Amino acid sequence: MTTSAQDPQSGFSYSRAFFENLVDRALAHAKKIGASDAGAEASEGCGLSVSVRKGDLENVERNRDKSLGVTVYVGQRRGNASTSDFSEAAVQQTVQAAYDIARFTAEDPVAGLPDEAEIATEHRDLDLFHPWAVTSEEAAQLALRCEAAALGTSKKITNSEGAGVSAQQSHFFSAHTHGFRGGYASSRHSLSVAPIAGKGRDMQRDAWFSSMRHPDELASPEAVGRYAAERALSRLKSRKIATTECPVLFEAPLASGLLGAFVQAISGAALYRKTSFLTDSLGKTVFPKHIDVLEDPFVLRGKGSSAFDDEGVATHARKVVDAGRVEGYFLGTYSARKLGMKTTGNAGGSHNLSLVSRQTRSGDDLDAMLKKLGTGLFVIELMGQGVNQVTGDYSRGASGFWVENGQIAFPVEEITIAGNLKDMLLGIQAIGSDAYNYGAKTTGSVLLNRMKVAGS
């Protein structure tokens, strides 16, 4: 077998058939030298990134990488090794390295491949691969149009941190000795810009982007540029506010961070190490009764879509939270065994989560959510990493708008919002219909009943 089998239609250097053969050779060699079980994954990624600033081209980058990763089990000892060299000698050396690591690693009673009954057998097409044959010149023109739209929105847009276009694609094939075989190609494309408004001491920046599997679904460069500029302009003449306690409304893109903190808290390693503020939360109420968290791995073109997880375990649509109560964790095989439970098909992370309220109506847009907020803080940017996953303590720098009687009064900056995630999750009063997808998470704006706001 040659070391390359180019697939010209896809833009990849290696074909699916080549990767299948490569993985099979690795597994066969692992068995030959004495492995009790083994798994291997071959992958390739490539793409183009172009950035511009103030009307000039800044960077053009092309990336291409490849990898073969091998996991070998000797009983309940495990070893891993990887290589970017696909030659026969390199494959055998990599398998041998993984085997040698396994032989000298301490036994782990829960180490091992997933049970055969849990392996995905149906691999439905989720429409994830839409390569974008954009040239560097075309990408630069799109980025320039985006930045020009931002700069042209107002004379108060005085500068730019630049605009960028990225077109990325990858594919992989994975198999292991408990019967799994599978892989797919996927793509992810984006367009972004970061304009600066104002002069002197009153300068504000903001940014916006569009990211999609299919290039035709990206927002127009002009729409992204204008919206980023409007965001920056809205923050001019920001001021501090006095320290207070008040309701807080998280803009939809930020609200996905609350969902992310919850996911981290009910995920495998944090649970079995007891480094989570939601240890032993299964079956317990952690949100108000009007809140559900849904997981759907089968969304067409979804950014978190997959018919199987990183171990080849079948994924399932489910309610993670039902009427405020935790119905399931996020577990891979190892963490599930540590907890005396079954894998949930989440090795590698969650799949297309939605945070929803049973009380949300179609008319609950951002204006309606501001009315529900009444008088309080509307947050559109968070800074710092002040989240303690063990205790749930939450403290982050923030900026946004002070709202009075449901109307934005003025922009605010240089404040800190603080609370405890347990109280914050239980204190969700409403979720807006202004649903926003950020990676594998979707939520509208989220209104919390009360947080501490530290100002002047």
List keywords for this structure.
456 residues; alpha+beta; eight-stranded antiparallel beta sheet; six-stranded mixed beta sheet; 9 helices; 36% strand
Q: Give the overall average pLDDT.
A: 95
Oligomeric composition of the shown chains:
single chain
Strand content: 35-45%
Shape: globular
**Into which percent range does the helicity of residues fall?**
10-25%
Query: Which structural category fits the helices and strands?
Result: alpha+beta
Rg, Å, rounded: 25 Å
Give unreliable regions as ranges: none
**H and E string:** HEEEHHEEEEEHEHHEEEHEHEEEHEEEE
Distance between the termini: 69 Å
Query: What is the overall number of helices?
Result: 9
Q: List how many beta strands DSSP finds.
A: 20
Question: What does the largest sheet look like?
Answer: 8 strands, antiparallel
